[in-house]
Amino acid sequence: MNRLIIMAAALLSLVSCSRPEPSTARRELDRLWKGSPVEFRHTPEMKAEAFGIEREGHKFVISSADDTGALYGVYSLLRDSMQIPREESPAFPLRLLNHWDNLDGTVERGYAGHSLWDWDALPDSVSPRYLDYARENARIGINGTVLNNVNASPQILSHDYLVKVARLADVFRPYGIKVYLSVNFASPMVLDSLPTADPLAAEVTDWWKNKADEIYSLIPDFGGFLVKANSEGQPGPMDFGRSHADGANMLARALKPHGGIVMWRAFVYSPIDADRAKQAYMEFQPLDGKFDPNVIIQIKNGPIDFQPREPYSPLFGAMPQTDRMVEFQVTQEYLGHANHLAFLAPMWTEFFEYVKPSSLTAIAGVANIGDSDNMTGNPLAGANWHAFGRLAWDPQLSPARIAREWIDANLLIPGSNIPDSIYSGLLDMFLTSREAVVDYMMPLGLHHIFAFGHHYGPEPWCDIPGARPDWLPKYYHCADRQGLGFNRTTSGSNAVEQYPEPLRSQLNDIDTCPEEFLLWFHHVPWTHRLKSGHTLWDELCYRYERGVSTAEDYCRRWEEARPYIRPELHADVAERLRTQAADARWWKDACLQYFREYSRLPYPTGVTAPVQPLEQLKRINLPITNFESPTPALLDSVRY
Ligand code: BDP
């Protein structure tokens, strides 16, 4: 009897000390690896979201301080059960997707169909795809999602919508994902007819405080707000004579009692007549140190706007007393939409060569996700969603490793014995693809020579009477009889001054400026010799030519890999790659003929002369909106 009591007491004390098993982690394990020899160990001294994996005899032990860490450990073990023991923790505490989804179901700059969020059906009906979405994100460590477009409808803060948002938050919570919302600064005026949205007016402060209380009563772990203010027509504190700091701090104070944050975007167009590349810095740098601790300034990776290649935004180094985060664009607004292969891990790791991850509090990626069957439109674009999450977790991961992970899990027929040479050809396609896009669209630091509006094809000649000059290609390429490129040196707009030494002097000197940024910082004479020994004109021609031949080569490699690729993907991707190659020729023909009107130089040997006359290319009109990608059939019909 005594022994029984002692045993029961011992058992009871065991139960009370140990935590229950992390249920989502166990469920995922049972779903993906039934009967697996895995034990979870609660290790309170570990960091939030971190995990460790080790072997004990025949079993694997996943240790973590919290359930999310355990879940991440499961996905990590499934990805790699060889490198054990290991311990991992995320580089950035906040790793978010930004959806540019509108409440009417369209997705701004989204090329994967409509929004995944079925607002009409919510909250009563919950699509099973929300769970798929949560799992996909948790698999790569994403822990937050901003559900709606930065060009935000005030309606998202109405009670009806908040109830729908709460339902989504319930689905995502077990997967460690918090929900955030983009908010419109004029919401109090639109939703409740307040006479003002002045952040210093008491009625406005109260409105936001009450709104925050309402949100947290529905969603206790709500993440916070993302704000686009005083940019591209969006309302903001400056409409009321206040600063970005006044606006951001007012919202931050409403959220603070609940633990929420404000991500305030630095993507602005000042009314001032300065070089577009200087504006965010000019507007925000003087505000350094004026933001509340729960405000983070969200800065696009480059100073202009998600171009195929930009130098890093100098604002990252100019606000040491303010929390900063980077905004990458996963959706390919300027990189061929859902048609082109452009694996973006190399672009993002290039950014981290200049901006130390440890200087950033968080990381956001503008999502490339929609309601298409595979959620990303182009099946290969799934690799960019994967890459974003993986780099948000560990920015030191190599693009090759990330690409391999994705190819192995998503492209190849399981068990297919793909020969090494074909596999490395495939891998190389991913790793070179971003540079190929740069070559055939905007080599040597050219930027923003896209067609107005849809940002798909070339339009370096574009002129729209009445448009802001800094929305037009000529503002950026500055082609004339002397040369090409934007002079941002001390003799020009002096944007170089925003960079620290010694980089500033390096960029300022035409001979030391990295050639990939040459035309970003310099107006270069057509006959100036580059490192290759070629003149600028010849090098420009060679780069366009190289871009075209690389894109054509992708079609051949893809065909070669056919026996090893999942059949349901092969034909779809083959058609997109054909379109990519045709688009590359379109870019080359349009840009070289147009710039040649200024250089008046012959095409160098080895560069095939453009096929379609410039006048014909200028007439191409793509009737698409900024919510869709042109189909191959549409492109063929307008081009030939
Ligand atoms: C530009 C997009 C536009 C976005 C804007 C932004 O063309 O659709 O609203 O950025 O980031 O790249 O706010």
Mean pLDDT over the residues: 95
Query: Helical region count?
Result: 20
Helix content: 25-40%
Number of strands: 14
Under CATH, the homologous superfamily of the largest domain reads Glycosidases
Total individual domains: 3
Choose one word for the global shape: globular
Flag low-confidence runs: 1-17
Oligomer: single chain
Ligand inventory: beta-D-glucopyranuronic acid
| Measured distance between first and last alpha carbons | 93 Å
- Look at the structure and give the CATH class of the largest domain: Alpha Beta
> What's the gyration radius in Å?
26 Å
CATH architecture annotation of the largest domain = Alpha-Beta Barrel
State the strand order across the main sheet.
5-6-7-8-9-10-11-12
Give a verbal description of the structure.
- The protein is α/β, with parallel strands linked by helices and 640 residues long.
- It folds into 3 domains: 68 residues, Chitobiase/beta-hexosaminidase domain 2-like (Chitobiase, domain 2); 305 residues, TIM Barrel (Alpha-Beta Barrel); 167 residues, Alpha-d-glucuronidase, C-terminal Domain (Alpha-Beta Complex).
- The chain contains 20 helices and 14 strands.
- The radius of gyration is 26 Å and the shape is globular.
- GO terms for molecular function: alpha-glucuronidase activity; xylan alpha-1,2-glucuronosidase activity.
- It comes from Duncaniella muris.
Write the layout of secondary structure elements.
Layout: H1 2-17, H2 23-32, E1 38-42, E2 51-56, E3 59-64, H3 67-79, E4 86-88, E5 94-98, H4 129-139, E6 144-146, H5 159-172, E7 178-183, H6 187-192, H7 202-218, E8 224-227, H8 244-255, E9 261-265, H9 279-284, E10 295-300, E11 323-329, H10 345-354, E12 362-366, H11 382-393, H12 399-410, H13 420-441, H14 473-477, E13 483-484, H15 503-508, H16 518-521, E14 524-525, H17 536-560, H18 567-599, H19 614-618, H20 632-639
Parallel strand pairs: 1-3, 5-6, 5-12, 6-7, 7-8, 8-9, 9-10, 10-11, 11-12
Antiparallel strand pairs: 2-3, 2-4, 13-14
The structure holds beta-D-glucopyranuronic acid.
GO molecular function: alpha-glucuronidase activity; xylan alpha-1,2-glucuronosidase activity
InterPro entries: A-glucoronidase_C_sf, GH, Glyco_hydro_67_C, Glyco_hydro_67_cat, Hex-like_dom2
Domain Glycosyl hydrolase family 67 catalytic: 83-354
